[in-house]
Every structure is written in C-alpha cells, then in structure tokens.
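Bench log, entry 3. Co-assembly request; chain sequences pasted below exactly as received.
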Amino acid sequence: MKTNKDTDLREALRRRYANTPSLPTDFTERLKERMDTKPTVNHRRHWWGWMSAAAACLLIAIGVEVYYEFNKTPRSIAKLSAPDNKTECTQLNNRVQPIEQSGRTNRAIGAHQLSNRGAPTKQSGRTNRAIGAHQPSHRGAPTEPSGRTNRAIGAYRPTKRTRPTEIPDTLGNGIWRSERNVALAIQMLSECEKTIQREEQEMRNHIIQATFNATPQPANAVLVTNEAGDYEVIETKTIIEI
Amino acid sequence: MIVKTDKQIVDAVRSDQRKGLDLMVGHYGQEVFGMVVRLVGDVMDAEELTQDTFLRAFRCMDSYDPQRASLGTWLCRIAYRLTLDFLKRRRPLLVSIEDTEVWQTDINEEQLEAELSTGNEERISRLEELIDQLPPDERLLLMLHYFEERPLDECSFIMDASPHALANRLYRIRKKLHKQLQKI
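Structure output for the full assembly:
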C-alpha cells in the first residue's frame, strides 16, 4: 500500500507529540498494588450485580402473577368455567329409569313421559313420528328408535354423549380467593339452572302440543296449562265428573 | 539490558505474574503509555488507563495469539479500546467537519499530497491545531501511521478494522484537514 509523504502533516504530528511524558517511575509498584486488590472488588461487584438482577426478575414475576390473579375479566372467567352449556345440561339430568312404550296407546302417555328425563326409552310405531322429532328433550342416555321415524330423530340426535365428569379446573384454585369471582360464579350457575329449567319446560310443552295436534283426539279432549306451566291433555268429561 | 522476546515475556507472565509484570512493563510500558497519553492528554488518566491495560492483558493472556500480532501491538489494541471507552464516558466525540462536506471536496490524491507537503510554517502550525480537534480514533490513526510509522496492517489490528477501511479513513481525514486549511 502506498505511503503518502504529507510532510506538513508529519511535521505537525512530530511537533505535537514529540514531547510525550515518560512513564512514572513508581508505575510498576502501583500496578502491583492494584493487582492485589482489584480482583476482590470486581468479584464483589459482579456478585451484587447478579443478585440485583435476580431480585428484579423475581419482583417482576410476582407483580405479573398478582396482576393476572386479581384483574381477570368476568367474561374470561365465564368462558373458561362454563365449557359447554348443552352438554352439561344433558349430564345433569340423567336420573330416571328406562320406560318402554309401544303401540298407539302411547300417544297420550308418551307426551307425559317426556318429562321423565332419564335412561333410554324404547319407542316404536307411528307415534314416534311426532315424538321423535323432538327427541333431544329426552335428557338421558340414547334411545333406540326404529323404522321410518329415524329420519327425523337422526337429524336432531346428538352425535356424542358425554359422561358426567367434573369440570376441569383450568384456572386453578386461585380464582376463588377473590370474593367477586365467587359471587360471579354463583350468579352464573343460578342463571344457567334457570335457563335449563325454562328450556326443558318449553320443549316438553312443545312436544305435548305437537303430539296433541298430530294425533286424533277425543272430542272432549283439551290442552290446558297446569300450575307449574306444563301442558296437559285432559278430557272435559273428567272435569265435569270431578 | 537483555532483550527479551515476546514469547519469553508471555511465558514469564504465565509462570510467575510478578516477574512477568516487570518484564512486560519494562518492555512495553512506555509504548502503551505514550499512545494513551497522546489520546487522553492527561498524565494521571493515561497512567490509570495503562494500568488497566496491563491488568486486562494479564487476565486475558491465554487469548493472546502470537501469530496474529506482536505483544506490543496486542497491548496497544487493548489500550485503544479502553481509551475509547474512557473518552466516550468523559465527553462526546468531537466532529469538526461534516462528512458530506468532506466528500464534496473535489481533489485527487496527488493534489492532496502536494497540499499537505508545502513546508509552510503557518500551515504546519495550523495543522497542529486541527489535529487536536479531530476525534480520538482519527487522531490515533494519524499518530500510529504517520508518527509511529506503523504499517496499516498493524494499525488495523489495533483499531479492529480492515486495512482497506483504514486507508479510506486516512484519505478522508486528510481531505478533512485540507478543507480546514483552505479556510485560513
């Protein structure tokens, strides 16, 4: 590589730096002193640095944890703690033993049986047409319908039945430390229960009404609502007799 | 005085630090201190930085590779880094002329060399002042290359830059000085 003459620059540098002070005579002694002392100081400084960093990280982690514990929104709790409303409703109502039905005589009985939420019912014959169409209201294990009625049933039957199990505790017990969260959970459960009952009643009434309309009835048969709000098929003659 | 080679000094440091320290400081102390004091300008600061340099060298002696550079050059490299850190902490770097202005100067290498080789006393004095206004890394490059007569390869090891980059930087510094000289 070519070296430039640049004599002015060289001369200026020579003048500027020619009188460089020499190394102090006690330089080596002072350096030896520092050699003896410096490592300890450094070590201590590093140790404190690491400790401070670790403490800061710990504090941040605790802060974040506390923040998330006490600042969860009600919506997120609702989402996580109530997984599938329909499935849970179905599970809650598995209580009653199976009932067998057959023939045309089941017309009226069948309508009332619908309130028996429970184990499988066996149905056959033409009456299934009307009942089967509303079969999802039979809260319980699977039914075994047969014949042409399956067409309608198949359309409504849930493809998968879940067994009653405990709701997985995905949030941890920590959420129950907050009174607000507990109150919210209770409120949600009660609302859920009310909704289930209302839906069940509506479905029962619907089926009864459909059955009543679809099948030939005696001339004096009427559809009435009882005190609980359920439909009932009664014959006017019976009322007069009473 | 018995002249010791780099290998002997390094071996002495590795076997006995106290003995190695005497040897190393005796051999390279003035060279390192001279470079630092020219950059820093203050004897006390320069002494402390030189001490830091030797302490760092003792601690990192295992990383020294005699194939890459001589022991003196390696020490200068450590000193340069420490000094730059020190100067950054102490005050912001001085930039006398904008780079764009420098690059706009239309002058070729021969003209530049002629402009910086006039022998004019006034220009030399002015150059002395201008050198003081340069940033430390540029001042060091001039010092190493023009004053200490080190080749660019050695300068590149000390300043951790490629020789080509240093040649470019040198050209830019000279142009910068020339531009300033024109303002007189």
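The interface with chain B takes residues 1, 4-17, 20-24, 27-28, 30-32, 34-35, 38 of chain A (CB under 8 Å). Chain A has two domains: 8-68, 78-216.
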